[in-house]
Amino acid sequence: MADNSAGFTIIEVLIAIAVVAICLTAISALIGATTRGVRSLEQHVALVETARTVAASLPSRTELGPGVIAGELYGSRWRMGASPFFGAATALASDSPWIPETISIRIQSSSGAALSLETVRLQRRRQ
Questions:
Q1: DSSP per position, 48-106
Q2: Is 125 helix (H, G, I), strand (E, B) or coil?
Q3: CA distance 66 to 80
Q4: Which pLDDT belongs to residue 33?
Q5: CB 85 within 8 A of CB 102
Q6: How many CA atoms lie within 13 A of 14 on its CB side?
Q7: Rounded Cα distance, 7 and 68, in Å
Q8: Can you give the pTM of this predicted structure?
Q9: What is the distance between the alpha carbons of residues 72 and 76, in angstroms, rounded to a whole number?
C-alpha cells in the first residue's frame, strides 16, 4: 500500500512562503534604516571635520573684525561671522583690555545638511 499522506499541502507551503516574505521584509527595512543612519553619521562627521578646519584657520585677532567671511572647503560651503557679544548677564568692564566677540560658523554640505557653531572669543580693546 502506498502512503499518500507524506509531504506538504499547498496551504503549508503558502504559509511558509508568507513567513519567509515577512522575515525578508523586516530584514530589508532594518538594513535600510541602518544605511540611512550610517549616511547621516558620515555627513555629520564630514561637517564637523570641515568646521574644525575652518575654526583652526581663524584669522588672528587683529585681522578678524566684525563682518562675514565665506568660502568652500571639502565640497561644503562655509560662512564665518564675527560680531560683538551681547549677553543679557554680561556687563563690559570698562577697565578690561578685552572685548568679547561672538564667532558664528555655519557649514552646509552639497547634500543640504548643515551644522552651526557659535563660540566667544576675546578681542583686544583698541586703544
A1: HHHHHHHHHTPPPTTT--SEEEEEEETTEEEEEEEEE---TT----TT-SEEEEEEEEE
A2: coil
A3: 10
A4: 95
A5: yes
A6: 3
A7: 77
A8: 0.60
A9: 6
- Which amino acid is it at 86? F
The 8-class DSSP code of residue 108 comes to E
pLDDT (0 to 100) of residue 44: 87
What residues contact 68, with CB distance under 8 A and at least 6 apart? 79, 80, 81, 82
What are the grid coordinates assigned to 117, written together?
557653531
Q: Which three cell numbers stand for residue 59?
A: 584669522
Cα(64)–Cα(57) distance, integer angstroms: 11
**Helix or strand (DSSP H, E) at 39:** helix 10-56
Instruction: Return averaged pLDDT per consecutive 10 residues of the chain, 127 residues in all.
Output: 70 95 96 93 88 80 72 85 68 70 86 86 73
Q: Which of 59, 45, 61 is nearest to 107 (CA)?
A: 45
Sorted by where each begins, the domain ranges of the chain are 10-86+96-124
Grid cell 535600510 in the structure block, residue: 32
